[in-house]
Amino acid sequence: MKVLVTGAAGFIAGYLVEELLKHGHEVVGLDNLSKYGPLEKSYDRHPRYRSVTGDAKDAALNEDFNISTAESTTVLQLAEAIWKKLKPGTPFRFVSDTPFKYDVQRRVPEVSKARRVLGFECRTSLDTMLDEVIPWVKNQVELGNI
Ligand SMILES: NC(=O)c1ccc[n+]([C@@H]2O[C@H](COP(=O)([O-])OP(=O)(O)OC[C@H]3O[C@@H](n4cnc5c(N)ncnc54)[C@H](O)[C@@H]3O)[C@@H](O)[C@H]2O)c1
């Protein structure tokens, strides 16, 4: 299948494009380079990848996919998991406001479309993901991108 990935120079797309190529798809990556500027990606010279510099608002081919895990995690669980990685051995404490009446309590992404159309299924655990994302965020903060 030929897939258009918007925001192709971004964080999520970096993983998504690799997966799509791994599964044999042909990928066109579109990005206006507004966030990180020109970047080298590992798949830039992949024979089934083509990079286009442009604005997604000009591309009418949009299809939405949830490419996250279908596993639900609360913000509190996420905060605690991040804290334990950043401050091992330091007890986790939190304060919170009283929730609004209609606050979403649990969010469970619908991922069947990505599986059906792209053959993509997220198998990375939260723990593994945090081990990759935390150093990436630290680096981006140092670079002044965040
Ligand atoms: N990172 C997450 O955990 C997460 C979770 C849920 C949803 N999302 C959503 O997924 C999307 C991508 O997230 P990300 O973390 O990869 O963001 P990112 O900022 O790393 O990447 C976004 C990319 O889109 C490009 N871009 C912005 N406007 C554009 C336009 N008009 N045309 C073409 N390219 C454009 C930027 O240059 C950038 O490279 C965002 O909409 C974000 O809100 C992210």
Radius of gyration, taken over Cα atoms and rounded to an integer in Å: 18 Å
Q: Strand percentage, roughly?
A: 5-15%
Q: Low-confidence stretches at least 5 residues in length (pLDDT < 50)?
A: none
Number of helices: 4
Q: What is the molecular shape? A: globular
Model description:
The chain is of the alpha/beta class and about 150 residues long. It contains four helices and three strands. It has a three-stranded parallel beta sheet, with helices on one face. Helix 1 (about 10-20) links the parallel strand 1 (about 1-5) and strand 2 (about 25-30). The longest helix has 18 residues, at about 125-145. It binds nicotinamide-adenine-dinucleotide (NAD). Nicotinamide-adenine-dinucleotide (NAD) binds near residues 6, 10 and 13.
